[in-house]
Design a protein that fits this description.
It holds the Pfam family Yip1. This protein is mainly alpha-helical. It contains ten helices and no strands. It has one domain.
Length: 217
């Protein structure tokens, strides 16, 4: 009887509809399970396409690109960058998760990790306000002038959202791999550190080769 009750409760939980765009903020594990059990890859692509607009804005706005080019990048590059970046990160956390006895398949982890980009949607209004209040400071790379208040507000929002996105990442990995939060933390942390080290080595080697080529070494 108890087993039947448990199965019935589990079925009810699986049929509860969630809106991942809102539920992920406070219930990341429940939302990750909902994504894995209910949502299709097409829905994941939709999430990544929309969410990575905010990620892209935080990376290209201060380069000094014209507005029309930024719009084109958001339309065409955001979905591609979101899929490519998420696929690479999923592969890393899938492999390292296996070291901690993780059970997720690549597809399950890919669905769960798509949630980590959702918080960056909240950055879009900040950049739109910034564009309205002080377009020069946002779009001109060598801007010289007073720093607008929206800069500090957007910077603070970016820091908070980045931290919360990391929390969601750990929760999503823990739920997908069915491992503890601590194991999920290291599953995320280790490949991230290795990636930073790899990029640092590439940059250093590039600088050394450049200096040698111009005769400074």
């Amino acid at each position: 009887m108890d087993n039947f009750s448990d199965l019935h409760q589990k079925d009810e939980q699986q049929t509860v509809k969630l809106n991942p765009f809102t539920s992920v903020w406070l219930h990341p594990k429940k939302t990750a399970r909902y994504m894995i059990d209910v949502k299709s890859i097409g829905y994941v692509i939709l999430i990544l396409s929309i969410s990575n607009i905010g990620v892209l804005l935080s990376n290209v706005m201060e380069i000094g690109l014209p507005v029309w080019l930024i719009i084109l990048l958001c339309i065409f590059l955001a979905p591609i960058a979101g899929l490519f970046g998420s696929a690479i990160f999923t592969c890393a956390t899938w492999l390292f998760g296996k070291l901690f006895k993780g059970t997720a398949t690549f597809s399950e982890l890919f669905k769960a990790l798509s949630l980590t980009a959702i918080p960056y949607i909240a950055l879009i209004p900040f950049y739109l306000i910034w564009l309205y209040v002080s377009p020069e400071s946002l779009l001109i790379a060598d801007y010289i002038g007073p720093t607008p208040w929206i800069f500090w507000l957007t910077t603070l929002a970016t820091i908070i959202i980045s931290i919360w996105s990391f929390v969601i990442t750990v929760a999503a990995v823990a739920e997908a791999h069915q491992i503890s939060n601590w194991k999920a933390f290291f599953t995320v942390f280790i490949p991230s550190i290795l990636l930073v080290v790899f990029i640092t080595i590439i940059v250093v080697l590039f600088m050394i080769i450049t200096l040698i080529s111009i005769g400074m070494l």
